[in-house]
Amino acid sequence: MTETTTNNHLKKLPGWSEHQIRQEAAQTEMPLTDAHLEVILLARQFYATYGFSPSMRPLIKFMAEHLDIRKARSIYLMQLFPPNPAKQVARLAGLPPPKNCL
Fold this sequence. Notes:
5 helices, 102 residues, mainly alpha, 0% strand, Arc Repressor Mutant, subunit A
């Protein structure tokens, strides 16, 4: 079993796997589509590049640079990861929570 914090963020970042996230999504009855995975993997890329979990604005900016510009919108993220996209994405990506989402 993977160690998590009280907020279900991984204690050890290398413990994340796509298989694990699919299991968690199934347990919480959260849909996990290719669109969800695209954002989650991009957040992990952001973390690998900058060394911290992206809050909403940096995540959107990073998405604009790497995905279709129509996806780089807060409403898009709100639809995929309600009610707090940056926090949900970080948790599902196995990243620490963004500093403004503690």
